[in-house]
Amino acid sequence: MRTHRSFEINSLLQSKNALLQWAKGSEHVVWLDSNSHRDQYSSFDACLAIGASQILKTVDELQTFLNQETDWLFGYFSYDFKNQVEDLTSENLDVLEFPILQFFQPNKIIIIEDGQLHFKYLAAYADEIDADFSEIAQFQGTSQKQQNGPAKIKMRIHKDAYFEKADRFLEHIHRGDIYEANFCQEFYSEDISIDPWDAYQKLNSISEPPFASFVRLGHRYLMCASPERYIKKIGQKVISQPIKGTAPRGNDAIEDERIKDELSRDEKERAENIMITDLVRNDLSKSAVKGSVQVEELCKPYTFKQVHQLISTIVSTVERDANPMDIIKETFPMGSMTGAPKISAMKIIEDLEDTKRGLYSGTVGYFDPNGNFDFNVVIRSILYNAAKQYLSFSVGSAITAKSDPEKEYQECLLKAKAMRTVLEEG
Predict the structure, then answer these.
(1) Contact 227, 209 (CB under 8 A)
(2) H or E element: which one contains 312?
(3) Residue 10: which residues within 8 A CB-CB, separation 6 or more?
(4) What DSSP line would sit under 66-107, residue for residue?
(5) From CA 51, how far away is CA 56, in angstroms rounded?
(6) Which residues pair with 13 in a beta bridge?
(7) What is the signed CA dihedral for 39, 42, 47, 52, rounded to 10 degrees?
(8) How far apart are CA 418 and CA 421, in angstroms?
(9) 337 within 8 A of 358, measured Cβ to Cβ
(10) Contact 374, 43 (CB under 8 A)
(11) FRET pair for 122, CA 20 to 30 Å: which of 238, 345, 404, 413?
(12) Separation of CA 329 from chain center
């Protein structure tokens, strides 16, 4: 059971900053921030979960908790969770060494919504609510940052190798093995020490996306500025919102509208999105009530601080007693990060990419006490293993029959811009 208390706040931005500063002392942290993006499927302004009453690292442990407990869990599934969902393996290089999945039952949850801080504490910590609120209030308007020095970023595969691998993806497509594949490449830095909290706040301020997250699990960190929702369940409704199709922002309002309009009509970008929309429809149908899968939005252009994106929204209805883990397993990994057909695309991706994706292309989010959940797609993200002093970020683009490897390469550089800015400028 949890004790609930609520307190009024004066400033959303100051309260978010104060919570992040206050959370720095905890070994287990998940921070989720909508950056004030609101739509019919929004959950809250922001949410902080800290302290681990239980830590779960296997599917069995996770399923047992969901079957027996009625409480919150926060954490992630890495991309390589696919190997437990399908008959797949991953033998590529993995320097970051994030566990395949990790969730924790937080001691303390603080949600910002409707101008209030909502404290949801386990009974054993309920008597700390007032003291914690007072402590958080002391961080209002303060900032404690360690200035990061400029990082030296290396590319795991260089341009010529990228073109060679892109051509091999195209060979698979022309042969009919796949229709589309999301080809990713890693950028990394070794022997580096950073302040992950500061890096996250800088990254978030550049993009201000709707599914930002910061995760600390011991010495492993995620700084995530994701614009994409993987999947959400609320009651009997399941929602997935894949992104496929990217264009840069313009230099002024007129150019911006022109680029956005061109993106919405671009045959290649639309084809990418429609193929993944079909894949998601098929994935959702596995657990859906017959005839309930619907496409609410198809290739709708959305504007973010750095890019325009095409987003589709697919929904379904599930039975009241639907198992949350079954829905995750039937839809994971998200089609926007794999390709179509999904299994064939993942096998080819494993063969042609140089590193394990790990938490990149995975998902961060939560299960709530009512069997609901909400998970993002881990993209536009920096991953950091402080014990190894190793930092990594990856970017990708969809290869289709109409792909030009040079344009795909430039799209990757566009997506990498925010992470490079944070790390190279320090």
Answers:
(1) yes
(2) strand 307-317
(3) none
(4) HHH--S-EEEEE-GGGHHHHSS----SB-SS---SEEEEEEE
(5) 13
(6) none
(7) -150
(8) 5
(9) no
(10) yes
(11) 238
(12) 17
Strand partners, 32: 47, 213
3 state SS for 12-63: HHHHHHHHHHHHHHCCEEEEEECCCCCCCCCCCCEEEEEEEEEEECCHHHHH
Residue 349 identity:
I
Give the separation between CA 241 and CA 295, rounded to whole angstroms. Answer: 10
Could you give the CA distance from residue 4 to residue 7 in angstroms, rounded to a whole number? 10
**From CA 270, how far away is CA 247, in angstroms rounded?**
12
d(CA 227, CA 238): 18
Taking the C-alpha atoms of residue 416 and residue 127, their distance in angstroms, rounded to an integer, is 45
Question: Strand 381-385 relative to strand 116-122: parallel, antiparallel, unpaired?
Answer: unpaired
Nearest alpha-carbon partner for 264 in 209, 312, 210, 336: 312
Residue 89 burial by Cβ neighbours in a 10 Å radius (0-12, 13-18, 19+): exposed
pLDDT tens-digit profile, the chain (426 residues):
899 999 999 999 999 999 999 999 899 999 999 999 988 999 899 999 999 999 999 999 999 999 999 999 999 999 999 999 999 999 999 999 999 999 999 999 999 999 999 999 999 999 999 999 999 999 876 666 666 778 899 999 999 999 999 999 999 999 999 999 999 999 999 999 999 999 999 999 999 999 999 999 999 999 999 999 999 999 999 999 999 998 999 999 999 999 999 999 999 899 999 999 999 999 999 999 999 999 999 999 999 988 899 999 999 999 999 999 999 999 999 999 999 999 999 999 999 999 999 999 999 999 999 999 999 999 999 999 999 999 999 999 999 999 999 999 999 999 999 999 999 986
| CA 63 to mean position of chain CA atoms | 22
- The predicted model scores a pTM of 0.95
Q: Which two tokens stand for residue 134?
A: 């007072």
Residue 207 tokens read as: 């993009």
Contacts of 27 (CB under 8 A, 6+ apart): 52, 216, 217, 218
